[in-house]
Amino acid sequence: MSAKTSLWSIFKCFFTAGATAYGGPAMMPVLRREVVDKRSFVSREEFRLGLGLCQIIPGGTLMQLSAYIGLKLRGLWGALAAYVGFSAPAFLLMTLLSTFYSGTRSTPLAHSVYSGLKVVVLAICLMSCLDFVKRFAPTRRHQAFTAGAAALFLAGAGIVPIVGGAALLGIFFLDPGPAPEIGDGPAGNGALRLAVCTGLAILAGLGALYLADRMLFQLAVSMIKVDMLSFGGFGIFPVMFAEVVEHRHWIDGSTFIEGMALAQVTPGPTMLASAFVGYVLRGVAGAVTASVSIFSGSFVVVLAAAHYRNAILRSRQARMALSGVLATLGGMIVAVSWTLAKDVPWGWQSSALLVLALGALVKKVPVYWIVLAAAGLSMAIY
Q1: Is residue 238 a part of any domain in this protein?
Q2: Could you tell me where the DSSP H helices lie in the chain?
């Protein structure tokens, strides 16, 4: 740990990254520029190893990486400063947008805008399907996982058995590729005790929430569940849909897709779409509860994983299980896309907007520009 790096410096660095990083994997170079190139918080090699570790464990990859780097700098408080800094811009914007959404959703103009934004989210889902298949289902075995997950999801199978089964079957049937180069450095920095203490603190917080407000308690538990079943950024999409729409029935598919549309215009981690769900259910208290909970479980995991970093990165079984999960998440995105397509008001307007959005995504136009352009166009054509 480095006593020279202040907690304020850590928070400010990650807040800057969280406020300027858009677009899932495109956020990684922004974060690397801030912590490696500009501030030299960690070496490029340490950044690479941290990224490799965070791609294996559940949760939002870049949120986990932020905590990992903060942990290296100043222990538990450094990890918290990085975590809060990176997520704060997206949380603040999502809460403001959710407030605006709740106050305007019933107006005719808002109806037109959200009709178009549903099409954009569907386009993003379709492109994410292709991306997941291309990156994580390169062989017929992987593609069988993808197709099987889509079929099971549409048939009503639970998210836990789908993801858990994929991880188990992946250990026996999938090739994870070569292990990353690790070198001869230490396995970790003794963070296991911090993980245990943090986990106990979270359990105590859940107990207090259970006594104070059962609805917020259920929301917190659900978001922890979503967190622990999600891998990568957009991998949260089918998991959260399954939990809040199909299992809990807290919101309908139309509201969910509108919330995901709002999440596309905010920087930082996509997982903070949880703030929208929480706000719709219980206002600001719900947004805070959902946003804290969506990262709490994986925060404990990254603390423990840092202690066993080298063993995890070298583990062939861990990488095989991850291969199965990632291939499966691609299939569930396909299934959710099919389900959400039913909530789109189809006609020539939606069809044309879908083609335009897909074309813009292929050309790698930033997602927030696509969303903003679609919102403006929707007011004219719907």
Answers
A1: yes
A2: 7-20, 27-32, 44-56, 61-104, 108-136, 140-154, 159-173, 192-212, 214-229, 236-241, 253-263, 274-307, 309-314, 316-341, 348-362, 367-381
Query: Can you tell me the distance from the alpha carbon of 256 to that of 274, in angstroms, rounded to the nearest whole number?
Result: 10
Domain-embedded: residue 125: yes
Q: Quote the tokens at residue 17.
A: 């990254």
pLDDT at 306 > cutoff 60: yes
For the chain, what is the domain count? 1
Residue position matching structure tokens 């199965």: 324
Domain assignment present for 313: yes
- 231 secondary structure, DSSP code: B
Share the mean pLDDT of the chain.
Answer: 85
Write out the two tokens for 206.
């859940």
Instruction: Please name which of 364, 157, 339 lies closest in space to residue 257, comparing C-alpha atoms.
Output: 339
Q: Which tokens belong to 195?
A: 């993980």
Q: CA 11 → CA 91, 231, 250, distances in Å?
A: 15, 24, 34
Residue span of the structural domain in which 138 resides: 108-381
State the helix-helix crossing angle for 108-136 and 367-381, rounded to 10 degrees: 140
CB 176 within 8 A of CB 323: yes
- Which of 18, 17, 3, 8 has its CA nearest to residue 73? 3
Question: Is there a contact between 308 and 188 (Cβ–Cβ < 8 Å)?
Answer: yes
| CA distance linking residue 275 with residue 291, whole number of Å | 5
d(CA 216, CA 259): 19
CA pair distance 337, 358, nearest whole angstrom:
14
Tens digit of each residue's pLDDT (9 = 90 or more) over 13-70 = 999 988 887 655 567 788 888 899 888 898 888 888 888 888 788 888 888 899 999 9
- Give 334's contacts (C-beta < 8 A, 6+ positions apart): 129, 146, 150
Measured in degrees and rounded to the nearest 5, phi and psi for residue 250 equal -75, -40
* Residue 373 lies inside a defined structural domain of this protein: yes
Q: Give the torsion through C-alpha atoms of 234, 236, 237, 243, to 10 deg.
A: 180
